[in-house]
Amino acid sequence: MRPFYLLLVVTVLLYAACGNSQQALRHSADTTGGFSPRVAFYNVENLFDTVDDPFRADEAFTPAGRQKWDEDRYAKKLGQLHRVIRGMDYPALLGLCEVENQTVLEALADSCQNPGGRYQIVHFESLDHRGIDVALLYDPRVFTVTATDTIRTAFPPVNGETYTSRDILHVSGRYGGQHSLHLFINHWPSRRGGLAASEPRRLRVAQRLRAAVDRVLQNDPEGHLILMGDFNDEPTNKSVRETLVASAPTEAIEPQQLYNCTFPLDAQGLGTYNYRGNWNQLDQIIATGSCLQPQAKLQLGPAQNYRQEWMMFVHEKYGATPSRTYGGPNYYGGFSDHLPVYADILLR
């Protein structure tokens, strides 16, 4: 057996064993009364309001636009997303992408209000030409925000045309009142135009993120870092594995190294996005070893894709696939074309 594939097998077995013990710990721990001690990420597939923004190419998502996006469809979308978030036990830290603005985030936070209270929001407008951004919803009782900023990537013009993408959101804070935690929420450039042709853009963003991670590790060596998002690449692709330097979790965990918690899911052939019958693990959670060591005071459990039958549509050609809101201009009224990914947070 080749060494690389042997590593995958060992990694999967280690995570399976770890998962059993972590699950037992999770059920023995108190939740936060409506929010779960969980970190999650969800690409919510085009969460737009119904109002045309003259500065963004969002006119398709208006009542008169191609998608015929009206208040009824918008309300149904919010309800569908709430059902998924509720199914995940209202993660205390929830990263999102493909959200248009603060308005839709406020509406989503209102719809997700539960016995634990209401999510707080961190969001900044990016230069994305369609107006879709990343954001964080969080439970303010367990996570206190101390600083926020964005990481913007400039792309060289191609044939005189400029390219814009989503900013990376960096949120610093304290989890559980004492643990320094840095969150990086991502939505990397898409694969439009082909995997190879679009790869340089993702490599460029990966370089920017890696530089930001190094700065944080230098300034806060005791801090915990969690990177999450739709990377539009898989854990084994160059941008994630080589440029970002996020490797598979192993027995020998170094506190300041990055480890891809979704690597074992990818090794099992699982994924969050079904492309013509092939599952891709595009949505990932990556953490520093300080979150993964057995005796860590803030410990991240194994990553899992959240998938329920009611979230799925059985395609006659490609099999079970996430039930999406739209396919081109066709309205299906589903949840999202991606599955969420999550991991439990344990404090010792």
Describe this entry's structure for a reader.
The protein has one domain: Deoxyribonuclease I, Chain A (4-Layer Sandwich). Helix content is 26%, strand content 30%. The longest helix is centred in the N-terminal third of the chain and has 26 residues. The N terminus is likely disordered.
Question: How are the secondary structure elements laid out?
Answer:
Elements (H helix, E strand, L loop, with lengths): L2 H26 L7 E12 L23 H17 L3 E9 L2 H10 L8 E4 L9 E6 L4 E9 L16 E8 L3 E9 L7 H25 L4 E7 L7 H6 L2 E2 L10 E3 L2 H5 L5 E3 L2 E3 L2 E6 L9 E3 L3 E2 L6 E4 L3 E4 L3 E2 L2 E2 L9 E7 L1
Parallel strand pairs: 1-2, 7-8, 9-10
Antiparallel strand pairs: 1-20, 2-4, 3-4, 5-6, 6-7, 8-13, 10-13, 11-12, 14-20, 15-20, 16-17, 18-19
Which descriptors would you attach to this protein?
alpha+beta, globular, 7-stranded mixed beta sheet, 348 residues, 20 strands
- CATH topology category name: Deoxyribonuclease I, Chain A
- Determine the mean pLDDT: 91
Question: Over the alpha carbons, how many angstroms does the gyration radius reach?
Answer: 19 Å
Order of helices and strands: HEHEHEEEEEHEHEEHEEEEEEEEEE
Helix and strand composition category: alpha+beta
Name of the top-level CATH class: Alpha Beta
Distance between the termini: 38 Å
Globally, the shape reads globular
The biggest sheet, with number of strands, parallel, antiparallel or mixed sense and barrel status, is: 7 strands, mixed
Estimate nothing, just give the exact number of structural domains: 1
Put simply, the count of helices is 6
**What's the total number of strands?**
20
* CATH structural architecture: 4-Layer Sandwich
Assign a percent range to the helix content.
Answer: 25-40%
Q: Give the low-confidence spans.
A: 1-31
